Amino acid sequence: MAKVHAIACQKGGVGKTTITVNLAAVLDQVLAKDDAAVLVVGTDPQRSMDWWASRVGDDIPFAYTETSSPADIAKLRDLDYAHVFVDTPGSLENEHILRTVVEHADDVLVPITTEPLTFVPADTTIETLIKPLGVPYRVVINLWDPRDGRADLDDTIAFIDQKRWPRMNTVVRRYKLHSRAAAEGLVCTQYAKSRVGLEAYGDMMRLALELGEAGVGR
Ligand SMILES: Nc1ncnc2c1ncn2[C@@H]1O[C@H](COP(=O)(O)OP(=O)(O)OP(=O)(O)O)[C@@H](O)[C@H]1O
Ligand SMILES: [Mg+2]
Fold first, then answer.
1. Average pLDDT per run of 10 along the chain, which is 218 residues long?
2. H-helix or E-strand containing 108?
3. What is the distance between the alpha carbons of residues 206 and 114, in angstroms, rounded to a whole number?
4. Which of 4, 66, 135, 207 is the Cys-Cys partner for 170 at CB 3.0 to 4.6 Å?
């Protein structure tokens, strides 16, 4: 039985694909002895996962596949992996795919950024889609740039807390390394061991550990 983690928010550009790929990479590293540890499934018709994986090439640390077939999505738990991370489409017209993924997930991670523009789509995804299905979920703040100061971050935290949405303590900071990674064919476990490389990797590692602590990981 696999633990199925969906990464979902009906807004483009909040970091679903970035978080999916990098969480899978760090979990694979943590579970290194297990051959069939981690599978990444791309369900976005834009096939962003395929593109990323093709750039990484043979060095890709986890198994991956693309599908938006409801029959395939319904069977992900039966696969022989410890963890399955499912990237989902950000567009409203593909809501049926997202709904199928959430229905068959053990938990959902909802990325939000410190730009208030992302608050309403997150609200829609959580209140109209995830909550009615009764699947455990947590919000994760992505793309915070510490150089902008704490005000936006504090406002975002206040918004999430006022909604009473469960929230990851880990904030994923904005690093050029992450935005260049897909084009350069890298996942965060392969970043240079420079200060920023380790910080960018560290955020993803902390997020993966937090996912596990709440009992949703293994
Ligand atoms: N923490 C981060 N630091 C820097 N860049 C980031 C970070 N997270 C995401 N990005 C960049 O932001 C852009 C959007 O990220 P991503 O493609 O992961 O979002 P998405 O939610 O999957 O979007 P879509 O709904 O369009 O698939 C990408 O260029 C990505 O490299
Ligand atoms: Mg994406």
1. 96 96 94 81 90 86 94 97 96 94 98 96 97 98 96 97 98 97 92 97 97 58
2. strand 107-113
3. 19
4. 207
Residue 218 placed within a domain: no
Question: Would you list the DSSP string of 32-99?
Answer: TT-TT-EEEEE--TT-HHHHHHHHHGGG--SEEEE---HHHHHTGGGSS-SEEEEE---SGGGHHHHH
The alpha-carbon radius of gyration of the chain (Å, integer) is 16
Cβ < 6 A, ligand 1 pocket: 12-18, 44, 48, 90, 142-143, 172, 174-175, 178-179, 182
| Confidence (pLDDT) at 214 | 52
174 CA to centre of ligand 1 in angstroms:
10
- Count of structural domains, the chain: 1
Task: Report if residue 175 sits inside a domain.
Answer: yes
Question: In which domain, by residue range, is 28 found?
Answer: 3-212
Ligand 1 atom closest to Cα of residue 20: 18
In this structure, what CATH number is given to the domain that contains residue 139? 3.40.50.300
Within a domain: residue 14?
A: yes
Q: Which tokens hold the place of 183?
A: 């084009």
81 Cα to the center of ligand 2, angstroms: 22
> Residue 217 domain-assigned?
no
